[in-house]
């Protein structure tokens, strides 16, 4: 690509990993966020630009001259029509060359998750596109689960004995960079992406315990209790509902399959959860 790739959510886990992978590959990056100065500090080597998904007037300036668009749904956004889908419409008007949308596993058939509506809109557009459908993120341990681990030495979830093939978002970044390097080959494709090993949360807790040197326990709970727990941590009800639906789905094996696609695309195995925890062990340190 001669022009830059506009990366939405560049200050987040997925967007940041994509931006860094593109920079490493020598692809010009336009890193988007509501605070361009903060984005610039986080991603040296990228051009920063103001983009607010709640403000459509920021769409055209951010997209001007872009050859690619990487799109991810911020968890706080539930109404995708006037936000993500409107940005896709603006990208079509701007004749952006290729769009990569980071969705979630099963969103092509699961109408409950907001990602389904974005996928449908993108597939019906005039844009060239690729959809990535990653499973559960290793980075959930440093985000959705971190407070419980640090404060209470526990992981509380409504997942029963369900397993997840955790994927490191650094691998998602590498796949996105590969797609943007050769968009024609990947046009119209939907890729399910998982890590190399499926673990239940007893195993995840044991892994953390071994690395951190203190006992972390897994506490299974009901969907209703978890919904209230997530909301009590300050997350909006809509986000709490989506998070609850995704985790209860683990009971039915929705995220336990280890998919070979990532290894096939990258020519290597994905990063393990053990590697992620080891690389980031200070995130779960306690004050004591």
Architecture blueprint of SSEs:
Elements: E1 5-7, H1 13-24, E2 29-33, H2 36-42, E3 47-50, H3 59-63, E4 68-72, H4 81-93, E5 98-102, H5 115-123, E6 129-134, H6 146-152, E7 154-157, E8 163-164, H7 169-181, H8 183-186, E9 190-193, E10 199-200, H9 201-212, E11 217-220, H10 223-232, H11 237-248, H12 261-266, H13 273-279
Parallel strand pairs: 1-2, 1-4, 2-3, 4-5, 5-6, 6-9, 7-11
Antiparallel strand pairs: 8-10
Helix pairs in contact: 1-7, 4-5, 9-13, 10-11
Keywords:
alpha/beta, 7-stranded parallel sheet, 288 residues, 13 helices
Structure, explained:
With 288 residues, the chain is of the alpha/beta class. The chain contains 13 helices and 11 strands. The strands form 3 sheets. It has a 7-stranded parallel sheet, with helices on both faces. Strands 7-11 form a two-stranded parallel sheet. Strand 5 (98-102), helix 5 (115-123) and strand 6 form a beta-alpha-beta unit. The longest helix is centred in the N-terminal third of the chain and has 13 residues, at 81-93. It is globular.
